[in-house]
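Anyone up for a design puzzle?
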């Protein structure tokens, strides 16, 4: 918080804090930024930036009065996206900016700043970050960066983390142990939440590209089974819908051991079979697949509007799937690592996709995490079920009697 007072760092132009989640980066950097700016300047203008102003307010601005209580007085002018900080007879203004996309750089043009704080800087486009830095033209102005790591190909890693000495920026790496307010049990829970590249990033705080298979924790011996335990409750079906691309149905039911079992799969590829099916034919296939069993809900790819309509016409209870990719992959990985998901050995296409579902290397070179859009139809149906049912505690559906 007071690095700028220390003799060996006074010549530096800024500070860059990266590392694990919940490690105290935001608190330390925000309080340090205010201490520095209120000590070094009077009646000057600064910027505090986030991905969006809404997230900035939620994660930073709303917490500031508590963080600096007894040190500074803070007033917010929401209509102007500005806070004013007072200390005795001294005051400074801090404007709030959101770096949502490439067009956001225009929002910060023209302003003259004595310093800028960029919270979660890796989520902002390069054009916005560089424009914010360019506005810091007051003598002695400094840059304050805070972020969780992404892939090593991310532009911020290449241009600032690797070149921190060249750019005269102090680089500090945080771990969860740097946050004295974090309960040990909570820390262990966070360690259980992530696997693979995301464990290295969010828990170890390392810059690592996602590469190889997406679900590298999948183990055929652990996660595939020839026999099912006693099952309880109503089943669910999750659907990834395609025309030429494969259409997949996965049937789910919870075991008395608390594990969710994929008890069966339906797989049809219009491209491989050289025959496309209509919505009605797929609905007929659903009837045969369920063989008279009435599912609690059918979780369907939200883009399959016509198929959703056909299923509802036949009386199925349908829930549009939560199709967030990144969050879904992390959620599935967490459940696999905890042995909370298992698959019947008859789900041959699902098992095959676990081995062929890989990260997109081209996207990784651009600093993006994105799986290759091939061999992913069972994986999408799996993700829809996990995000819509398990992580929401059960699908919210409108109940319709069969046949209406």
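Challenge accepted. My sequence:
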């Amino acid at each position: 918080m007071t690095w700028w007072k220390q003799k060996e760092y006074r010549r530096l132009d800024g500070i860059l804090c990266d590392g694990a989640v919940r490690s105290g980066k935001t608190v330390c950097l925000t309080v340090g930024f205010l201490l520095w700016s209120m000590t070094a300047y009077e009646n000057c203008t600064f910027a505090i930036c986030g991905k969006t102003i809404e997230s900035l307010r939620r994660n930073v601005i709303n917490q500031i009065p508590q963080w600096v209580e007894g040190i500074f007085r803070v007033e917010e002018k929401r209509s102007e996206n500005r806070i004013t900080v007072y200390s005795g007879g001294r005051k400074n203004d801090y404007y709030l900016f959101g770096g949502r996309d490439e067009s956001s750089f225009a929002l910060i043009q023209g302003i003259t700043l004595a310093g800028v704080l960029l919270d979660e800087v890796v989520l902002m486009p390069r054009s916005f970050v560089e424009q914010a830095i360019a506005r810091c033209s007051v003598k002695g102005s400094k840059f304050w960066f805070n972020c969780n790591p992404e892939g090593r190909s991310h532009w911020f890693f290449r241009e600032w983390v690797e070149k921190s000495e060249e750019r005269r920026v102090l680089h500090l790496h945080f771990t969860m142990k740097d946050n004295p307010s974090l309960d040990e049990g909570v820390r262990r829970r966070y360690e259980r939440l992530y696997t693979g590249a995301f464990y290295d990033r969010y828990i170890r705080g390392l810059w690592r590209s996602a590469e190889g298979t997406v679900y590298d924790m999948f183990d055929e011996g652990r996660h595939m089974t020839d026999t099912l335990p006693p099952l309880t409750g109503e089943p669910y079906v999750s659907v990834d819908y395609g025309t030429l691309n494969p259409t997949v149905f996965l049937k789910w039911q919870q075991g008395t051991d608390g594990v969710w079992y994929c008890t069966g799969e339906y797989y049809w590829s219009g491209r491989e079979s050289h025959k496309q099916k209509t919505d009605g034919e797929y609905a007929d296939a659903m009837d045969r697949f369920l063989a008279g069993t009435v599912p609690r809900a059918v979780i369907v790819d939200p883009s399959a509007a016509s198929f959703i309509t056909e299923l509802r016409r036949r009386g199925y209870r349908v829930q549009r799937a939560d199709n967030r990719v990144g969050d879904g992959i992390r959620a599935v990985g967490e459940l696999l690592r905890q042995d909370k998901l298992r698959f019947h050995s008859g789900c041959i296409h699902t098992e095959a996709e676990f081995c062929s579902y890989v990260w997109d290397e081209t996207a990784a070179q651009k600093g993006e995490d994105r799986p290759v859009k091939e061999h992913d139809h069972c994986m999408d149906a799996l993700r829809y079920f996990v995000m819509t049912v398990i992580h929401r505690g059960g699908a919210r559906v409108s109940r319709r009697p069969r046949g209406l």
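A detail worth pointing out: The first helix runs from residue 25 to 40.
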